[in-house]
């Protein structure tokens, strides 16, 4: 025997479904309306304001991401109200209070890296396209996000580094300033003319077009090694990059080596002299040799 539900229950279910569907449609319409308005009108105005302040891409990118997050948050808040779901902020506070403990444990590293990313953007220890060295690694910064930084090594490997690792440790940024000093060591023999070797090193530094005249190059005797006298040259290059550093250092070292060869100045290699005697005793008794 079939049981027929009361007409009042059927009407209530149908009305509830229709109301829920209507609210959902209103939510989607309101969300898309506010979101598109933000993307089409607010975002372009915001971008023009950033460009007027002469901010580079390093500074604009996180601010643009932050604006997108704000637009989404506002769109959801308005859509909640428009659809009759209630106050989004109140609902959000209730959900957040219930999930804070679990999320806090689960997202410790994420939050730590997020905060570190903010410090990287504000303190600017390095920028995109900078050459940096850290924890035994070195490479060029390709991208900085609020959680990780991507570094391309000189072997063409891509490192994805958590931001906290870059803020907790020591980072070397050789190209942070407009100039970079190179130190190149040359070893000559103890019998060679130190003054003449110094003159050659200085002349080749002054001759190289990419080595700065101000500050000028300098040469100092800094080491009396086991087999050589160490002369350290200090030169400066402008607008440095990793490729400039390697190229200039190589060309400069090659030029000095060729001049040393022409002038008969030795670049000695380590050697050791062994002295002493070896006593060999042999008991030939009972041995016959035919």
Number of alpha- plus pi-helical segments: 7
Q: Please summarize the sheet with the most strands.
A: 4 strands, antiparallel
Mean pLDDT comes to: 78
- At the first level of CATH, what is the class of the largest domain? Alpha Beta
Q: Which oligomeric state applies?
A: single chain
Terminus-to-terminus distance: 129 Å
Task: Describe the 3D structure.
- With 290 residues, the protein is of the alpha+beta class.
- The chain has 3 domains: 16-93, no CATH class; 123-168, SH3 type barrels (Roll), CATH 2.30.30.60; 179-263, Alpha-Beta Plaits.
- Helices cover 52% and strands 17% of the residues.
- It has 7 helices and 7 strands; from the N terminus they run ααααββββαβαββα.
- A 4-stranded antiparallel beta sheet has the order 1-2-3-4.
- A hairpin with a 4-residue loop joins strand 3 (148-153) and strand 4.
- Helix 1 (7-52) packs antiparallel against helix 2 (57-83) and helix 6 (194-207) crosses helix 7.
- It is elongated, with a radius of gyration of 36 Å.
- The termini are far apart.
- 15% of the residues are buried.
- The mean pLDDT is 78.
What brief labels describe this structure?
290 residues; 7 strands; single chain; three-stranded antiparallel β-sheet; 17% strand; SH3 type barrels; 7 helices; Alpha-Beta Plaits; alpha+beta; four-stranded antiparallel β-sheet
